[in-house]
């Protein structure tokens, strides 16, 4: 078929074609088109499908491309148990979130009031297991759960089920009644409670370490900022500073893999470059 293509009444091109007129040709014949014609490649449209499949237009998967599975973090052999490394473990706020959990204060310590809902976080337990897997450090429970034989046994059972053994617990000491935040006549009750709690836990950790001189390096996993007990006006002369050894955990998140990696690097670095623990 021979076609004349005119623009504004002027003959522009003679086209010989065996196909039906395209929309562009029709528009040019009517004088409504623009010149020149677009190349055929630019005017092509993606063919429509009637399948309704959202992924119909996507390329087929490449059978030659292999997907590499993520490495199992426990695939390598675990480190041997090392009694020179210790992890002081708090539970509430570390292995268990404290969001919306009512608490009760007993002898300067805080315990969960709702004992019917005290499940431990699988992610936090996995992070703790990974930390021990990398370092071989032993666990010492410093949590208030050690005050209750049933709570302590429950924690030990959960840890033992994942291959983590509890080496011991810190002693339970009395809080110092002479510590206040504010004034003695008008103290800030919550801040005073936290200060006494932190100072008492620092003394308890120190007391355990004094009985286990083989421990060279240690960390404390805790959601309580123990560094508030490090001030010279508060800390006893024979109590260790907590700041250099504290891994502070967000109580609304719990222990994470990031905590585990950072803690393992710290413990292993100290193991390679041993130094005497400073008490000042």
Automatic annotation (TrEMBL):
Q: Where is this region: Disordered?
A: 31-70
* Key words, A-Z: Kinase, Transferase
Q: Which domain of life is it from?
A: Eukaryota
Q: A GO molecular function for this record?
A: kinase activity
Q: Where is the composition biased (Basic and acidic residues)?
A: 39-49
Question: What's this protein's name?
Answer: Casein kinase II subunit beta (CK II beta)
> In which organism is this protein found?
Cladocopium goreaui
């Amino acid at each position: 078929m021979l076609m004349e293509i005119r623009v504004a009444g002027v003959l522009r091109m003679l086209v010989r074609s065996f196909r039906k007129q395209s929309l562009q040709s029709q528009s040019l014949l009517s004088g409504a088109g623009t010149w020149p014609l677009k190349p055929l490649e630019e005017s092509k449209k993606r063919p429509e499908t009637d399948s309704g499949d959202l992924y119909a237009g996507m390329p087929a998967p490449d059978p030659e491309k292999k997907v590499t599975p993520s490495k199992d973090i426990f695939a390598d052999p675990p480190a041997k148990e090392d009694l020179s490394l210790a992890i002081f473990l708090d539970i509430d706020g570390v292995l268990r979130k404290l969001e919306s959990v009512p608490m009760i204060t007993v002898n300067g310590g805080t315990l969960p009031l709702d004992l019917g809902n005290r499940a431990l976080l699988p992610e936090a337990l996995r992070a703790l297991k990974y930390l021990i897997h990398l370092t071989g450090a032993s666990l010492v429970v410093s949590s208030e759960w050690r005050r209750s034989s049933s709570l302590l046994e429950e924690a030990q059972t959960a840890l033992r089920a994942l291959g983590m053994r509890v080496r011991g617990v810190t002693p339970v000491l009395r809080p110092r009644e002479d510590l206040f935040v504010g004034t003695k006549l008008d103290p800030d009750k919550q801040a005073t409670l936290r200060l006494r709690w932190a100072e008492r836990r620092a003394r308890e950790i120190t007391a355990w370490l004094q009985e286990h001189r083989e421990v060279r390096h240690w960390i404390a996993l805790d959601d309580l900022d123990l560094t508030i007990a490090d001030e010279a006006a508060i800390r006893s002369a024979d109590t260790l500073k907590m700041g250099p050894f504290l891994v502070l955990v967000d109580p609304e998140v719990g222990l994470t893999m990031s905590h585990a990696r950072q803690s393992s690097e710290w413990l292993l670095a100290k193991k390679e470059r041993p130094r005497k623990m400073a008490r000042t």
